[in-house]
Amino acid sequence: MGIALAAAGCARLAAVDSNALWKIVDMRCVPSQQATGTPGQCTLVDLDKRYAILKDIVGRSQYLLIPTDRVSGIESPLVLAPHAPSYWADAWASRDYVNRSVKRTLRDDQLGLEINSQFRRTQNQLHIHIDCMRRDISDALARHAKDAPGEWHWDTLDGSRYRIMRITALSGTSDPFRLVSRDNRNADAMAMQTILVTGAGPSADKDGWLVVNSGLDADNGSGSAEGLLDHSCHVADAS
């Protein structure tokens, strides 16, 4: 696999190989980290926490968190295993790569993480998108900034129905995979879900996070929340 393929965005990779992201991480980034202490074609490889960060060529500021273990996606039982890595917390901790790309320090409610359902993704290796939020979506979500933690509230975003929960942590019982799995108790149900996470306010440490969830099985639901992100990061130009 050449460097051009490694740099291609998810949609372009899928046309070539739906396992391309996994091959980049497993065959290039991890061996480079192990052999030389540098992440190769990735931005970061954390061998202890078992994930890599890769810059996606789609968009000015989009990064992907990709496990260094073979994990197919949101439907995989591995994301719910007792000692599963805290992928969402690790992805959130990596949001500064977005800030560096746009040379701005964005508010936490201007940044988002997202994973697509099995039926709306292009790669068969779990990857969490890390990028800017659309300004209009952040404005719409602001009405949930003071929701009581731990309760789902339905809303319409970009024409689709999503349920939204404010949380005060991204790991443990508040891990978004675990929250969504409570109502989707098998792999087939989880396979239809999409999850987005963003700050509930300017500082997630103070305001918490919003978990935004929909599914292909929901009335007017969606299997992808990626459209709620802005890969052009227009919000950075207005900050």
From TrEMBL:
Coiled-coil blocks: none
Enzyme class: hydrolase
Catalytic activities: a CDP-1,2-diacyl-sn-glycerol + H2O = a 1,2-diacyl-sn-glycero-3-phosphate + CMP + 2 H(+)
Family: Belongs to the Cdh family.
Record-listed E.C. numbers: 3.6.1.26
Native source organism of the sequence: Paraburkholderia kirstenboschensis
Keywords assigned by UniProt, alphabetized: Cell membrane, Hydrolase, Lipid biosynthesis, Lipid metabolism, Membrane, Phospholipid biosynthesis, Phospholipid metabolism, Transmembrane, Transmembrane helix
Location relative to the cell: Cell membrane
Keyword Transmembrane helix: yes
Protein name: CDP-diacylglycerol pyrophosphatase
Record bears the keyword Transmembrane: yes
Pfam families: CDH
Highest taxon of the lineage: Bacteria
Biological or metabolic pathway of the protein: Phospholipid metabolism; CDP-diacylglycerol degradation; phosphatidate from CDP-diacylglycerol: step 1/1; Lipid metabolism
Main location: membrane
Membrane topology qualifier: Single-pass membrane protein
InterPro entries: CDP-diacylglyc_Pase (IPR003763), HIT-like_sf (IPR036265)
